[in-house]
């Protein structure tokens, strides 16, 4: 089996920069680079032709060391990838508007026929890597734009290119307007080095942008322009397979990004050089609160060690972080950590404004006003054996997928990488590793108030008198099939 990773990331996050970084630094490894849902390879992949062998114009190339770079389509997998024999590594690059599609494909290898099925049946997924644009992350989370809006804008002018201006910060309110203006520009432009580099080739954002007509169709190949090329590539490649993404069109951009974060176990926080230190610290706390992923901070997606992306990663989330709000965007992060269980009936009433279980019960959005995401694990008083996954995302809740507390399992079944933490919890606390761990992200401009949400959740906890009754009484007196 060949080790593989899946790379996800929204528009301009830096997926192509990561490709170039890996390609340049790991000449000794034969890698299969597979791009999904783009029809043709990203332009800046095609532009640098030194040492390349074109196998299919715009769609499949072979690097000097035998690596193959192609789109993830049956014919190219069969004609070129399989025939190259065993690869050292496989890297799948996801469509910018997708989160789980490639994971679903990889999980169905046994059911697939043809070359693609044969290929993926011989790869082993090691990690999911999410690339985030540190410069635009908080604004994207704050945005009320939907994925469908972005797809529509980008597919209407699919044959045109755009040029990201050095240092330009697109305001969220004008995001659609800016993109439309760029696509309506009928001249294909080239990013000239003088827009960001001085006469000696040193990057300088203060130099004035020059606009010149592009004749060769090639973008800037200097490293300082990699992030700009990512914007060009992602936007230009959205013409393919749009209809297959219709199911996600009603999804908020913020939801898509949060989904991409949630499925990853490695996060590359890219473009950190473009934000202030205080903003970077806030993003770090935000990611630590909602994800247990390993976070790697980069510029131009330059990874110190490419093999790091293929190592098994186990990290422990720090739930002791203080709640905090980014004053500029109004995004709040709340750490809700309790060593008391929820009363199941009171929690159900908070969620649905009723204590009667029905299939069509709708989440009471009033109680979760301004919440972008709530995710974590909860402890219900009537169940001392299991913890429950709990998630609210874009006004929809998911409660279930229960799994046993560590203290109810045999020590041989514990995760060895966190064994010390498990032992410490079991020894220190009366109810051992039983607890509530929720991470909440809210937007103040949408009415989020962290004190209000904490108060409402606290009211669902067992009272001090109820705690004195003990687990046996909880199980009988608070027994409920609501969850």
Give the strand tally.
17
* Distance linking N and C termini: 40 Å
Helix segment count?
A: 16
Can you tell me the residue ranges where pLDDT is under 50 for at least 5 consecutive residues?
156-195, 203-219, 235-246
Q: Give the class from helix and strand content and strand pairing.
A: alpha/beta
As a percent range, the share of helical residues equals 25-40%
Q: Which strand order does the major sheet show? A: 3-4-5-2-6-1-7-10-11
The whole-number mean of residue pLDDT values reads 78
The main pleated sheet reads as:
9 strands, mixed
Radius of gyration over alpha carbons? 25 Å
Supply the key terms.
about 20% strand, about 475 residues, 9-stranded mixed beta sheet, alpha/beta, single chain, 6-stranded antiparallel beta sheet
Structure characterization notes:
Helices cover 29% and strands 20% of the residues. It contains 16 helices and 17 strands. The strands form three sheets. A nine-stranded mixed β-sheet has the order 3-4-5-2-6-1-7-10-11, with helices on one face. A six-stranded antiparallel β-sheet has the order 12-13-17-14-15-16. Helix 11 links the parallel strand 10 and strand 11. Helix 3 (74-81) packs across helix 5 (114-120) and helix 7 packs parallel to helix 8 (175-184). It is globular and about 75 Å long. The model is unreliable at 156-195, 203-219 and 235-246 (pLDDT under 50).
Write the layout of secondary structure elements.
Layout (H helix, E strand, L loop, with lengths): L1 E8 L5 H11 L5 E5 L7 H5 L5 E4 L3 E3 L5 E4 L2 H8 L7 E5 L7 H7 L6 H7 L2 E11 L3 H6 L4 H10 L18 H10 L4 E3 L19 E3 L12 H11 L16 H10 L3 E5 L6 H14 L3 E4 L26 E3 L4 E8 L5 H9 L18 E8 L7 E8 L2 E9 L14 H10 L7 E8 L6 H9 L5 H6 L1 H7 L6
Parallel strand pairs: 1-6, 1-7, 2-5, 2-6, 7-10, 10-11
Antiparallel strand pairs: 3-4, 4-5, 8-9, 12-13, 13-17, 14-15, 14-17, 15-16
Helix pairs in contact: 3-5, 7-8
């Amino acid at each position: 089996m060949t080790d593989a990773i899946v790379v996800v990331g929204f528009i301009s996050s830096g997926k192509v920069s990561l490709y170039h970084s890996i390609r340049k630094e790991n000449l000794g490894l034969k890698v299969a680079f597979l791009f999904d849902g783009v029809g043709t390879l990203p332009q800046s992949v095609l532009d640098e032709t030194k040492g390349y062998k074109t196998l299919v114009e715009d769609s499949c190339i072979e690097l000097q060391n035998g690596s193959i770079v192609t789109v993830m389509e049956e014919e190219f997998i069969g004609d070129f990838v399989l025939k190259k024999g065993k690869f050292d590594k496989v890297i799948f690059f996801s469509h910018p508007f997708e989160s789980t599609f490639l994971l679903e494909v990889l999980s169905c290898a046994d059911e697939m026929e043809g070359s693609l099925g044969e290929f993926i049946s011989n790869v082993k997924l090691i990690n999911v890597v999410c690339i985030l644009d540190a410069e635009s992350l908080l604004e994207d989370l704050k945005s009320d734009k939907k994925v469908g809006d972005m797809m529509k804008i980008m597919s209407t002018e699919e044959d045109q290119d755009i040029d990201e201006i050095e240092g330009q910060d697109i305001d969220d309110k004008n995001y659609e307007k800016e993109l439309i203006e760029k696509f309506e520009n009928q001249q294909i432009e080239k990013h000239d080095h003088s827009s960001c580099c001085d006469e000696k080739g040193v990057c300088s954002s203060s130099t004035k942008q020059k606009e010149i007509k592009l004749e060769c169709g090639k973008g800037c190949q200097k490293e300082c322009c990699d992030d700009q090329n990512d914007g060009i590539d992602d936007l230009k490649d959205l013409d393919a397979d749009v209809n297959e993404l219709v199911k996600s069109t009603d999804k908020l951009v913020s939801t898509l990004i949060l989904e991409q974060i949630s499925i990853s176990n490695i996060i590359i926080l890219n473009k950190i050089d473009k934000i202030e230190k205080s903003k970077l610290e806030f993003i770090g706390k935000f990611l630590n609160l909602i994800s247990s992923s390993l976070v790697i901070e980069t510029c131009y997606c330059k990874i110190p060690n490419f093999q790091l992306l293929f190592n098994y990663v186990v990290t422990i989330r720090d739930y002791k972080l203080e709640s905090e709000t980014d004053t500029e965007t109004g995004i709040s992060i709340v750490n809700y950590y309790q060593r008391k269980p929820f009363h199941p009936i009171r929690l159900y009433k908070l969620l649905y404004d009723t204590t009667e279980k029905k299939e069509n019960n709708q989440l009471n959005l009033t109680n979760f006003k301004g919440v972008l995401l709530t995710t974590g694990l909860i402890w219900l008083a009537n169940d001392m054996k299991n913890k429950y996954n709990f998630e609210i995302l874009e006004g929809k809740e998911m409660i279930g997928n229960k799994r046993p507390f560590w203290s109810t399992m045999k020590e041989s079944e514990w995760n060895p990488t966190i064994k010390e933490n498990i032992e410490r919890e079991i020894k220190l606390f009366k109810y051992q590793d039983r607890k509530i761990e929720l991470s909440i992200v809210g937007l103040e401009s949408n009415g989020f108030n962290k004190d209000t949400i904490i108060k409402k959740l606290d009211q669902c906890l067992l009272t001090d008198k109820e705690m004195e009754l003990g687990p046996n009484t909880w199980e009988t007196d608070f027994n409920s099939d609501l969850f």
